[in-house]
Amino acid sequence: MLQLADLLTRFHSIFVRHQPSPIDWHAYRRAIQPDGAEGFQRPDYLSVSPARSATTWLFEELRLTQGLRVADVKETNYFSHGWLTGPYSRNFPNLSPGQVIGDISPNYAFLPRRAIEQITQVHPKVRILIVLREPVERVWSHLLFDLMRDSCFQVPRSDIGSIPESVLLPLITFYDSLCRYDVLVRHWLDNHPRDRIHIEWFD
Questions:
Q1: pLDDT for 150-197, tens place per residue?
Q2: CA angle 60, 184, 87 (to 5 degrees)
Q3: Angle at Cα 203 formed by Cα 111 and Cα 116, nearest 5°?
Q4: Which of these, 199, 40, 32, 178, lies nearest to 112 by C-alpha position?
Q5: Residue 73: which of 90, 85, 86 has the closest Cα?
Q6: DSSP 8-class letter at 201
Q7: Which of 114, 57, 112, 107 is nearest to 82 (CA)?
Q8: What is the Cα Rg of the chain in Å?
Q9: Which string of b and e fits 93-130 if b means at least 16 CB within 10 Å?
């Protein structure tokens, strides 16, 4: 049986893990700036859809689309934290001329407004894809996924039903706060050409 104190401890570590850290925005802009000397490939598209919104399905479909190149790994997280460890081009080895490139990283849904401003200033022609899922379904799916698979939780599926409401409700509230659609969409629409933003529904 899952112990309440144990789950609360794990829940606390999740909160701590998601605390924002200071970002050197000058270094960020330099890292995402195209630089021919480092072989930087300018992204043609980015999926900023939140987790549990068909991002894996989209990744597999784009991999099969002729002339379109998705990063070799589904989640490069380059524009969230991957920029700290090397150029964007490392995600596209053996790139063929003329291929349309981009990546699908659900963590982009958490990008702060300052990061979005930097991305859109440096890459004004990048196309942005936002897939939105019915919010209650998405939050519940995200929470269940992390409860069973996140290293901080790893709750057996058989124990999920024993989680008391006093713990489950704060968890749901937290996961709901991670990605508000109104904030996500507004930040992109306020900073990026609208004709380069495509919003679609999960269904």
A1: 555 677 777 878 888 887 888 888 888 888 999 999 999 999 999 999
A2: 55
A3: 15
A4: 178
A5: 90
A6: E
A7: 107
A8: 18
A9: eeeeeeeebbbbbbbbbbbeeebbbbbbebbeebbbbb
**Cα angle: 28, vertex 22, 107; to 5 degrees:** 65
SS3 80: coil
Report the Cα–Cα distance between both ends of the chain, in Å, rounded: 36
Strands (E), 90-177: 100-104, 127-132
Rounded to 5°, angle at Cα 151 from 146 and 152? 80
The two three-digit tokens of residue 100, written as one number = 């349309």
**Which structure tokens are listed for 27?**
């270094």
Q: How far apart are CA 173 and CA 139, in angstroms?
A: 9
pTM of this prediction exceeds 0.85: no
The first and second tokens of residue 51, run together, are 């987790």
